[in-house]
Amino acid sequence: MGRGQLRVYLGAAPGVGKTYAMLCEGRRRLERGTDVVVGYVETHGRPRTAALLDGLEVVPRRTLTHRGASFTELDAQAVIDRAPAVALVDELAHTNVPGSRDAKRWQDVERILDAGIDVISTVNVQHLESVNDVVEEITGIAQRETLPDEVVRRADQVELVDMAPEALRRRMAHGNVYAPEKVDAALSNYFRVGNLTALRELALLWLAGKVDEQLDRYRADHGIARTWEARERVVVALTGGPEGDTLIRRAARIADRTKGADLLAVHVTRGDGLAGAGPALLARQRNLIEGLGGTYHQVVGDDVPRALLEFAAAVNATQLVMGVSRRSRLSRALLPGVGVTTTALSGPIDVHMVTHEHAHRSLRRPKDGGPNLPLRRRLAGYALAVFGLPLLTFALTELRGSFSLPTQIMFFLATVVAVALAGGLWPALLAAVAGSLLLNFFFAPPLHTLTIAQHENLIALAVFLLVAAGVSGVVDLAARRSREAARFGGDAEVLSTLAGNVLRGEHELDALLGRLRETFGLDSVTLLERTAGRGGDPPRWQVVTTAGGRPCTVPEEGDTEIPVGDDLALALRGRPLPAGDRRILEAFAAQAAAALRRRRLEAEAERARPLEAVDRMRTALLSAVSHDLRTPLSSAKAAVESLRNTEIDWTAGERAELADTAGESLDRLDRLVANLLDMSRLQAGVLGMAARPLALDEVVPRALDEIGAAARHVRVAIPGDLPEIEADPALLERVLVNLISNALRYNPPGPPVLITAGALRDRVELRVADRGPGIPAADRDRVFQPFQRLDDRDNHTGVGLGLALARGLTEAMGGELIPEDTPGGGLTMIVVLPAGRKGAP
Length: 841
What we know:
- It is a single chain.
- By secondary structure, the protein is α/β, with parallel strands linked by helices.
- The chain has five domains: 6-221, P-loop containing nucleotide triphosphate hydrolases (Rossmann fold); 233-354, HUPs (Rossmann fold); 386-480, no CATH class; 507-603, 2-Layer Sandwich (Beta-Lactamase), CATH 3.30.450; 688-834, Histidine kinase-like ATPase, C-terminal domain (Heat Shock Protein 90).
- 48% of the residues lie in helices and 16% in strands.
- Residues 362-371, 502-507 and 790-799 have low confidence and may be disordered.
- It is an enzyme of class 2 (transferase).
């Protein structure tokens, strides 16, 4: 039996109708005679969804007990034993109750698929692992239930269930998604129009990637190499030259004119690593392409046209943008060049040859060798040619009878090779010409004339001249490549050190400039930025940062200037650096520009963080006011209006009960408002505090009195010989009230909440322990954030300020609030405060 097929309904947001669509598909298949069962469906109390279950066979769920509570889960084995053709399984990302065979529901589904059963399931985009952090950044809510993207990508069919944000909000307002008491808070927080729009875009982009994968897989399976213009993709080829900016903007305009077209940039690096573009230019062009919504790619290949076309075919590109050649007319006449070759081989891909201001201007770097060798080396080569050839001629003349002409030619050829190794190409060519003349004059008959009697000797000398010139060129090229390899090896070592520092996080701008100064032994390295003048003044250079001695105020003051874009430049003072070091300098410059951008982005993020916190606080406060504060106010108002109603003859007991209800509701409202005010004072930094020596047995009873009748479920076991603490009595009482109230809220019936205390050196620890469900270690930081409750099903227990306020007040008194597990289950909150003088026994 083969593996079953998986169909997934991907929802852009909760409430768009994934489960409804899944049940509709199940009913359609059932009507066509397919054996369909419901493995697990969660209707969330929605009547229209529940109505679709009528007539569908439902496999009984498993019941599991965890921490004294009962839960139902998908019974995957029961579904396998039933062996239907299709199983409907809701909420693919669901986490199973501890004790289940599989930790996640998608693992249950994998077992069902392996049994040859088709599965139809649902998942929301926010549960996909790859976008989980993005969703949290957008909505401010972390999704704890996630599943690997690969699970959904492997699905045979993925269908998007989408809805306009406004339509979804209307559906919620009508009570078709959540219970009425949750609607206001949901609309004000997670289900804001901006959030829903962003989630919708995430779902569309993710599904588009899935479609691309399916298309690529189909083409690969069927051996289809030609381009399918299912979607426009514009590829721009970058050489790393200054014309790249022009090409990128032209390609972006072409992509913009074709709605939905992808924009990709590719740079082909030679396989030998000995030639390449400037890192600074490529880094700037990469930023430009990414800023225009495109992607940057780099491939390796010695045959540039073939590498470009292979990349374009791999991404199913439809258009390729290239710049016209920078080579001279003579060069283009001798060799067709990359552009002409690519156009001839492009096939169905349209090639755009874009002109630019740098056309016909070669940007090749000067090569080492020849005139670029040190003067000492060149003089040594010429000296060896001038003195070595006469000495060799004299020696062979003395031994004329011992060697034939071919052997003499070999001696001269060896001398030419030695000259090439010592001084490069031009001294070797001089030696080759001089050697041919000396061979002709002294050793080819007739002697002492430039006339050659025998044709064989003429041919031998001609061959010698050609071989000597060729060997000189090869030896010179090999020596040059060796020098280049050695130099690039040093460059690679410096670049690898630079990359290692970046990976280790050592990418601060000042440290980067300091490393550049140390690497090249410079006096100072200055990063300059061109700023716009004020009041019509011309732009001027401004020092961003410097390392070393006296900084340069303009780039021209430095011995070496490295431009980084249009408005940044590195000025190096100390000594002129050779052109061969420019590649490394450009890499440092690119990293410096990136570090500057990173520093400014971090500063912007730091400035925006308080505003973001204020916005979250405002949103949460509105939610609290609209719901949590309204509840006690409504209860008190209803009780008072009932007491004022003269049409009903209330008994004395009923009046007392109504009065108690009003009083309790107003007390609760008073506590909520007090917490809100204290939290606002904490965040504004204006909370007043008057710490003094204080005994715990003074504060704990007052906190229990404020809690009221529920305090009978609290047991206090505080030793009488504890030292006093340094704290504000009123603030500590507020801390204890919040901690004890939170413990009572989650403590199960039976065991009491336990309050203990102990001294440890100069600290006193006060513990509030309950036997409730506890808090997972991963969520312990989150519970101390304002307006956070881990159990969103409880909407009647406060605004989620208690623990946040307790920690803030404790830290304001110089203490700590630490959560830890209660032995045997539950949560213990530890208030750690500095000890004062010893208390009296």
